[in-house]
């Protein structure tokens, strides 16, 4: 299912990030725990009256050294390119400014629905301040207050009216959708070309997807695949394309549409912080993950090199211990053929369902081997476990008190489940739920 996308645009200080945070709420993310990553989320999911959507804070896209007006123009362009509905945010306390008019000028060019919101209307007496904003030409302005959380329901109602209808899946359930993510120049486009040129690959016409994404559907040995368009592969030559935030945004959107994410690393350069951050996004999204070390032709090797590189990856990506690693070269095509079987395996495991009785045998054996932890004199009791979802496999364990299931014991159970069922390539989720 493809979620609709809302983008917030507007000049600095009108309250874009305040509104964004209000709408998405607080969420703990591993990516933000990685050192060197600031609290700079600009893309997240939200929910309003049974509508799931994604939202972009375009204010967080920093376009290098461009002058102020050019920055906000570019941000409005991103909104036009990426969103289904645009929220044009202004500041009621300051009235219409020249910068608001600049944003409006860019937005006139699109047919996409635009909702004009006037922020910082912190109490009903201030409502009169919205009338100036009719002059921007986007119809009735909606008064809101980000800091007081007022009017956000009306705002989201207005946005939801414009969400695209339908909501059916883009591709059939049994098509394997995968994307390649990684820093610029790791070889993503070369790899896509190498995969598509493999013998017997039949590339079908590009499907008319809702968002004119540049996906590459193909069939190999009877299995249908779609390579999902990714930042850095689609090269349109727009100014904002080369900014880091925009490439993260594109990567997140590709991840979301994928079953399997290939995290591509450049063997020549080794692993850097940004690789970890990118890999973190794939893990958090609950997608199957394969680590691809590209440019394996370009380095000096002996019989230990691969093992050493693998260890380095394991040390850096602790949270991706389930991800298989493939070493290859897009340039020489060496070992390219090893990739698809691994993608197939990861995809299969991502949607694997296990039998409840077998699962419970495994859990009970685990508990017999390593007794459940105690806390303040209370012992965790596990009654029963069941798999509640696939993609990724998700388990609920019914216990006496969920807080007693500490991270380390959960990790132990996860490892037992993995040993028993072999969920290679996919994250699995475990939730504890109380049962009296
Ligand atoms: P952005 O640059 O558009 O992302 O704006 P921010 O979200 O960073 O907000 C700019 C400033 O306006 C901050 O100091 C916020 O606390 C303040 N602000 C945001 N929303 C409101 C509001 O509804 N009322 C008032 N009075 N201040 C607000
Ligand atoms: P992207 O930005 O991740 O899509 O990377 P590209 O596919 O554009 O590749 C970046 C550069 O790396 C190009 O000059 C490629 O020719 C080169 N390259 C890609 N794959 C390989 C490889 O396997 N080995 C070597 N030696 N160079 C490669």
Automatic annotation (TrEMBL):
Binding site for GTP 1: 10-17, 57-61, 119-122
Record bears the keyword GTP-binding: yes
Domain EngA-type G as annotated: residue spans: 4-167, 176-351
Binding sites annotated in the UniProt record for GTP 2: 182-189, 229-233, 294-297
Gene3D superfamilies: 3.30.300.20, P-loop containing nucleotide triphosphate hydrolases
Record keyword Repeat present: yes
Any one GO molecular-function label of the UniProt entry: GTP binding
UniProt keywords, alphabetically: GTP-binding, Hydrolase, Nucleotide-binding, Repeat, Ribosome biogenesis
Annotated GO biological process: ribosome biogenesis
Pfam families xref list: KH_dom-like, MMR_HSR1
InterPro entries: G_ENGA, GTP-bd, GTPase_Der, KH_dom-like, KH_dom-like_a/b, P-loop_NTPase, Small_GTP-bd
Entry's family note: Belongs to the TRAFAC class TrmE-Era-EngA-EngB-Septin-like GTPase superfamily. EngA (Der) GTPase family.
Complexes and interactors: Associates with the 50S ribosomal subunit.
Protein task: GTPase that plays an essential role in the late steps of ribosome biogenesis.
Name listed for the protein in its UniProt record: GTPase Der
Gene source species: Neobacillus citreus
